[in-house]
Amino acid sequence: MVGSQCLACTRNSGATTVVTLRSGLAGCQVEILRVHNPIGGDAFGHSLGLALTQSHIQNWGGMLKGAILYGTFGAFPGMNASQLHDAAMAMQKLAFAPETSDKTSEAFVELLDHFNKASGPDFKGCDWQTTDQVEIDRFLRDPLNAKPFCNRMMYGVLQGVLQLWTPENENRIPKDLPILVTSGTRDPVGGMTTTVLALIERYQQYGVKDVSHIFYDGARHEPLNDFCRDQIHADVLTWLEARLS
């Protein structure tokens, strides 16, 4: 997300940012597959990067052998579709006004607060991300982490996800694309698996033939940085080997 944030904080509109990121991902994949693996590869995405991966398999899924959706979500946390639309419209003025576009987004701060409140009464800071305090400390020490979104970035995110879960777009996912969905059962981004299960059900309704999922009991938003990291490595390897053999 470092690259995404840098792009989003240029003088582009949020919508332009989303298109730029999607096109950039497609271009990178074309070049990587051309040079290193012309028979195809697998996509792996997490969190907001995972939202881009969902968009990617809608638009360019035919270039892939499979997709792993890790720490995913099937709706915007804490909002229904109508509320998401209203939030994006309210954010538009802040995103385009010169005096507020670069300011820290209050909506972003409220979103992080929502994650902790949804997780438990004593949750604060980065507690919603992992049960591993060592990983939280490492995250906070990294100067490239913990940067709040500006209003322009937040508007770009809202505009992007508004288009993400429409029937028209999700129905474009190739029906023969194998998809593995993984999530922690205590991940507030996925509604403690509620919106993850809804996403899986929609994919199956749209005819995607091979959609499997693995939930990690008690893990939060960053399972690869949680107590179950070794199990995830093993599970993903098993899934890949079964589909590459």
Element layout with pairings:
Blueprint lengths: L1 H7 L5 H23 L4 E6 H14 L3 E7 L10 H16 L9 H14 L13 H9 L9 H14 L2 H4 L8 E6 L9 H12 L5 E6 L12 H16 L1
Average of per-residue pLDDT values: 87
Low-confidence segments: 1-20
From the coordinates shown, what is the CATH architecture?
Answer: 3-Layer(aba) Sandwich
Give the SSE order as H and E letters: HHEHEHHHHHEHEH
- Widest sheet, order of strands: 1-2-3-4
The share of residues in extended strands comes to: 5-15%
Tally of contiguous helical segments: 10
Name given to the CATH homologous superfamily: Alpha/Beta hydrolase fold, catalytic domain
Number of domains: 1
Determine the N-to-C terminus distance.
32 Å
Characteristic terms for this protein:
245 residues; alpha/beta; Rossmann fold; 4-stranded parallel beta sheet; 4 strands; disordered N terminus
Question: If you had to describe this structure to a student in words, what would you say it looks like?
Answer:
By secondary structure, this protein is of the alpha/beta class. It has one domain: 3-Layer(aba) Sandwich (Rossmann fold), CATH 3.40.50.1820. The protein has helices at 2-8, 14-36, 47-60, 81-96, 106-119, 133-141, 151-164, 167-170, 194-205, 229-244, and strands spanning 41-46, 64-70, 179-184, 211-216. It has a 4-stranded parallel β-sheet, with helices on both faces. Helix 2 packs across helix 7 (151-164). The longest helix has 23 residues, at 14-36.
Short structural description:
The chain is an alpha/beta fold.
